[in-house]
Amino acid sequence: xxxxxxxxxxxxxxxxxxxxxxxxxxxxxxxxxxxxxxxxxxxxxxxxxxxxxxxxxxxxxxxxxxxxxxxxxxxxxxxxxxxxxxxxxxxxxxxxxxxxxxxxxxxxxxxxxxxxxxxxxxxxxxxxxxxxxxxxxxxxxxxxxxxxxxxxxxxxxxxxxxxxxxxxxxxxxxxxxxxxxxxxxxxxxxxxxxxxxxxxxxxxxxxxxxxxxxxxxxxxxxxxxxxxxxxxxxxxxxxxxxxxxxxxxxxxxxxxxxxxxxxxxxxxxxxxxxxxxxx
Length: 279
Description:
Elements: E1 3-5, E2 12-14, E3 16-20, H1 27-39, E4 44-48, H2 58-63, E5 72-77, H3 81-95, E6 100-105, H4 112-122, E7 128-135, H5 142-146, E8 153-156, H6 161-164, E9 176-180, H7 190-201, E10 208-211, H8 216-229, H9 239-248, H10 251-255, H11 261-278
Parallel strand pairs: 3-4, 3-10, 4-5, 5-6, 6-7, 7-8, 8-9, 9-10
Antiparallel strand pairs: 1-2
């Protein structure tokens, strides 16, 4: 696992972070993803604010992993001061923490003036250590947003990641840069997902890639690739090399939603048993 300093925050994060959002369907899936992620060296978990309204014990997943105290937590929040207050109360209670390492203002707000207003309020809240702003609109003045006083990083989502992945883009190296893997969370886009990761890792100014994992096995699948990608460090890894890794891994079939041979055999026996019982 690679680790990169996050701007001037003083935090050193794994290059890959876990994104907890609509990809989480149940407690078992959540626990499994966190367990494998932390075991493989990931030290950043980012929660979408909507997850705090679902029937999942978020603290349980953190309690089940070792060294949970060394994990940095990020929370994506909407651009309303009232809602931020409510979500911070829910988040600190449900995660059983006294503070949030990174508060990420949602991508619907990407104007530096409005971000500055929220920063004035957030500076007074000792539950928040660092504040970032998301941007999804590629046509916005991202440079102006990046240089907003008091803002410590920018989270690129949606179409804005296309600008972030251009090697000639001029980053403010004092600010942390996060990019969302827009292909993650979709079991039919494993190839695109890894190609995205390879391109993002090749840009040293990008500090963190957030990924919506499907399950614990995919954590190993992706991290195995990142560790393999180290072999190609110093030169661009080709799409063909990425696809070679994807197709060699048996789990790729699982990612595509295809059943393994064992599961197929079990399914056939279950069908036969139902037919016999029906008679």
